[in-house]
Every structure is written in structure tokens, then in C-alpha cells.
Design brief:
Blueprint (H helix, E strand, L loop, with lengths): L3 H6 L19 E7 L6 H12 L4 E6 L6 E7 L2 H12 L2
Length: about 90
């Protein structure tokens, strides 16, 4: 079995991952959010992706095909916090 030190020293791994228990980080809700963009313009998509990358509550965001453009995992303390996150994301 290869050790994690060997993998890191040999540049085989590209990064480290920490799995956080949301309930211990203060977040009580984990939400799966589908996003449909109004416009299919690269600059709008790029602006959205930039804002998402700076939003701590968004744990994962994937661009997808089909009826929606993105799917996100969002973790928040409560519904009011979620509404605040949505307001920030809608005003990019």
C-alpha cells in the first residue's frame, strides 16, 4: 500500500481534501440547489462561477446539461441564511 507521504512527495497526488461535519461547523441544513440561467452568455456564466467560487456556503457547484445549468450543494444554518445567500447570488 502506498503511503500518503510517498504519494505527496512523488507528486502523484494533486491536493488534499478535508471532509467537514456540517453539524459541527454550525450549519444545520444541506441543500441541493438547481440553477437555471436566463441567458446563455459566456460572460454571465463566468460571472456566476466567479461569485460561486467566493461563496463559502456553496460546497459544490457543477455545470450540467438538461433543464438546469448548474447543480449546487449549499450548507447553511437556517432558511433565513439560505435566503440571504440566494439574494447575494441573484445580484451578480
Amino acid at each position: 500500500m502506498l503511503s500518503s507521504i510517498y504519494l505527496k512527495d512523488s507528486n502523484i497526488t494533486v491536493g488534499d481534501v478535508a471532509l467537514v461535519k456540517p453539524e459541527l461547523s454550525g450549519n444545520k441544513l444541506a441543500l441541493l440547489v438547481s440553477v437555471e440561467m436566463e441567458r446563455n452568455r459566456k460572460d454571465v456564466y463566468d460571472a456566476f462561477k466567479h461569485v460561486i467560487s467566493k461563496t463559502n456556503e456553496v460546497r459544490h457547484c457543477h455545470q450540467i446539461t438538461g433543464g438546469y445549468d448548474f447543480i449546487m450543494v449549499v450548507t447553511v444554518l437556517n432558511v433565513q441564511t439560505y435566503k440571504s445567500v440566494v439574494d447575494r447570488l441573484l445580484h451578480i
